[in-house]
Amino acid sequence: MTKRGWTTGSAYALPVYLFLAIAVVYPLAKVLARGVSPEALSVFSDRYLWERLLWSLEYGLAASSLVILLGVPLAYSLRYRFPGREAFLAVAGVPFVMPTIVVATGFLTLLGPRGIVGRDLTGTVFVLLWAAVFYNLGLATRILHGLLARQGEALEAAARTLGASPLRAFFRVTLPLLKSGLWASGGLTFVYTFASFGVPLLLGGYRYATLEVEVYRLLAYELDFPRASALVVWQSAVLALVSLAYLRAQSKLAPSLGEPPVRTLSPRAAWLLGALVWGGTLVLYSPLLALIARSFFGPEGLGLDNYLRLLRPQSSYFSPGLIEATGNTLRFGLASLALALPVGLLYALGVARKSPGLDLFGFFPLLVSPVSLGIGYLLAYPHLRASTWILVLAYATLAYPLLGRTLIPALRGLKPEFLEAAATLGAGAWRRFWRVELPLIRPALAGGMALALASAIGEFGATMILVRPEWATLTVAIYDRLGKPGMANFGEALALSVILMGLSLFLFALVGREGKLG
Amino acid sequence: MWKKLATILLLVFGLAYAQELRVLTHNSFALSKSLIQAFEQESGIKLRFIKGGDAGETLNKAILTKDAPIADVLYGVDNTFLSRALEEDLFIAYASPQVRTLRSELILDPKLRVIPVDYGYVTINYDKEALQGNALPKTLEDLTKPEWAARLVVENPATSSPGLAFLLTTVANFGDPGYLDFWAKLRDGGVKVAKGWSEAYFSDFTRYGGDRPLVVSYTTSPAAEVYFSEGKYQTPPTGNLNVPKAAFFQVEFVGILKGTKNLKAAQKFVDWLLSKKVQEDIPLNMWVYPARRDAALPPVFKYAKIPAHPAKLDPGTIREKRSRWIREWTKVVLQGLSPKEARTQP
Predict the structure, then answer these.
(1) What is the ipTM of this complex?
(2) How far is B246 from chain A, CA to nearest CA, in Å?
(3) Which helix (H) or strand (E) holds A512?
């Protein structure tokens, strides 16, 4: 059995390794090969860089602790039916796709020197942590929610029957069961926060620059390959260590089959819970609300002018209009998803079938600095550099690990008896997958696809690839407007951001509903 | 019969895909759709624009792919990166017939490996409303006073071309190593550093909700504020700080990249870029001045003042010292070292 498991696992793993070789390893090797030089070692004696590393670690740790602290009660609440529960799941994913400068504008509108709150909180760690929670809580809650296992509920019920108070049952039964889930969501938050650089810089200034800022500067501007390569390796190594802990934790997760059943509360309790969750959500996401409000203020005053101007034909060849940009966002998002889906699925199947090492290697794209990958593509595939292929490849590379990681616990939770029974009844491997496994993992698949789509329509890959005006997505259109002075440009950028928000909300709701059909 | 059909097919597709010309530009490049379409129809050359980030990043991308060029033409090298670009031997010289129509002071490469397309000035802008009733700084030194330093946002010269231009302004004014003392005082006074122009202007500048009424931007920004106000402003809500030698002169060039297989088409494109109608289209799209002497400016440019005494630095000196200046600047402003430490530490 183990032997067979190994071989089938590797059969799934092979295409994933091939994809990784093309999309990550070869381009990265091209960058590192240019950096082999004794000069590279000088980064390790640079005190400033150590300070940056230390801060990146602190920021990552603080953010992931906070996210866990808030994510657990949220995921716990999602076990119950309350008004607006489905809407909450859709809303929770939205920040993930928002461009950093737009999010920063939201925070400034609320907490800036002339903000609505009336107290300038920019430049404080408080705002930075808020922003990190803002970006990652939705992701973490989705993971934790997907992992609250049936067994957990049964054990909890048993504990209650044996006379444990609800509180005691939570602390002694649910929490220990959730432990690996905590590691998983915390680990992912850490990876994203550690490698983020837009938000800390915009809201905190250079005092809060992370290590990634230095990689960007050395590589994109100085072409200092030795020092940049050393930093890339250093950063990836730290992230790989953290991820190992995260992946180990996830492999021990209490498996859940499909979506845990939603419990019904008394109407009063349900309303109370709904009010609590939504109250918290509104506070956390208030910068987005501030942004929406501000998008209605144009040079002409209060109204829809910022939006209406987007519908005018653009005279410049380089300022994409609304229809064009939305179309491109959808087109590239779906194309990337089409590529990320098979790769992510194979990754998950390979890991679930215990292909050795695939767990960490498949996670690799999230551990590598995107800037270095972007330069790597340029060096490795100069002829493809301005083609749609490389764009879709880059987006899919960053999207498939999220999809895979969401699927893995679901696949692990599948009872082998089902597959064996199907095999006994004469179903081939493909048929078994199509008729037995796929229907069972469908909710997880829907969740994973939502995350993958989010990462593809957000700006994750935007800095990596060369942009062609006819491909301009909503994110590119936003940055185009923010490249020129003037209230009209600023207003249009805000309106485009709100539209991007609406579009992602729509897609999440769609995928979420799709998942529930299963 | 078949031959005829083949010829017709070749003609049809030949015309549609006669030639594709790839133009690598920085992110701020923009022209009117109608002009680009007219060029494609008249010449049969399909234009493919590729955006490579800001001026510095874009040039670096051309350098990295020198052996397998990703484009035929590069637009957007400016005088701060000129020597670097020429040293890398990226370009084929082209004596365009249009060159004689250009302002001669902009031609910084006599061999015409790069040809000037436009020029502009980086300078400090201020928010009129926020500074109402204040006496404005009169010299660059005034900026180091705490009441002004704490009101100024600059872009990081390591990651932004206006940021680099302003750093060079200070070198032109205070010399090397004097510029570091100026920056140490600015740092102590509380100057803010943003990653790039968009962040400085739309996040930190008081006009858009920030707390800094002084921002490093372009001399044309006040005119753009009027133009992009949908009629709200008849006079600019912002102004250029009237300080001698506080504006940095920037020229942007176009060059044909070595290794192109479309030399004729590339030359045609360069001629077109320097033609009167394209040159007159540049100001409202990119907010810079056309290089051509006879190109008329749009009316709104009356709000953009050309500085009388801009700061200038020799491209060769910039090439030689740019990296070191940025490194020392980073040590002093971002890492908090003293100018002396910044100079002596490796």
Answers:
(1) 0.88
(2) 20
(3) helix A487-517
